[in-house]
Amino acid sequence: MEQEIIRCAWAGNDPLYIKYHDDEWGQPVYDDRVFFEFLILEGAQAGLSWITILRRRENYRKAFAGFDVKAVAAFDADDVERLVQDSGIIRNKLKINSAITNARLFIAIQQEFGSFSDYIWGFMPEQKPLINNFKDKTAIPVSTVISDTISKDMKKRGFKFFGTTICYAFMQATGMVDDHVADCICRRA
After folding, report:
1. pTM of this prediction?
2. Where are the alpha helices (DSSP H) in the chain?
3. Which of 77, 88, 105, 131 is the most buried (most CB within 10 A)?
4. DSSP letter at 2?
5. How far apart are CA 49 and CA 54, in angstroms?
6. From the CA atom positions of the chain, what is the Rg in Å?
7. Tens-digit pLDDT profile for residues 91-117
8. Do 162 and 155 form a contact (C-beta atoms < 8 A)?
9. Which CATH superfamily groups domain 30-178?
10. How far is Cα of residue 49 from the mean position of the Cα atoms in its chain?
11. Residues 124, 75: contact at Cβ < 8 Å?
């Protein structure tokens, strides 16, 4: 008899969602390019479902120069117009402009701290991921004191579309917190 595979309920049955859940979500990230990718994607997701963004991820990769932070920081009004016309991404001008602004601020953080990774992990106790032990998704918070602190600091620096809820989703996506439920196959010991 085949044993049932248990995952976090949000992964559902969509193969793309399952792959994302199994291979990425909750896995610690230290690469600035990956952090920048999730900064853009999480900002685009504001007010939408994550699967909507996940299905457009490759389009975002093409539209935003392979998530090359320096290239995105150099985008100008022509690039904004190009992106507003790109049906493969969310064509919200505020979100597009914020991605460009956030790229410039991301670079400023890299210059100040050596890397964005050093900056963001500096908010975590002992610079390590928090591994939570929630029984089901209803217990998982949408924000925490740490996400409040990071969001407040980033907003002070000028970042847009990075409130505490988006920040916490960013933390989950980049493995700063592991919120895989207790019986999920991806939960770390």
Report:
1. 0.95
2. 15-23, 32-45, 50-54, 57-63, 69-73, 77-84, 93-113, 116-121, 145-156, 164-173
3. 105
4. P
5. 9
6. 17
7. 999 999 999 999 999 999 999 999 999
8. yes
9. Hypothetical protein; domain 2 (1.10.340.30)
10. 13
11. no
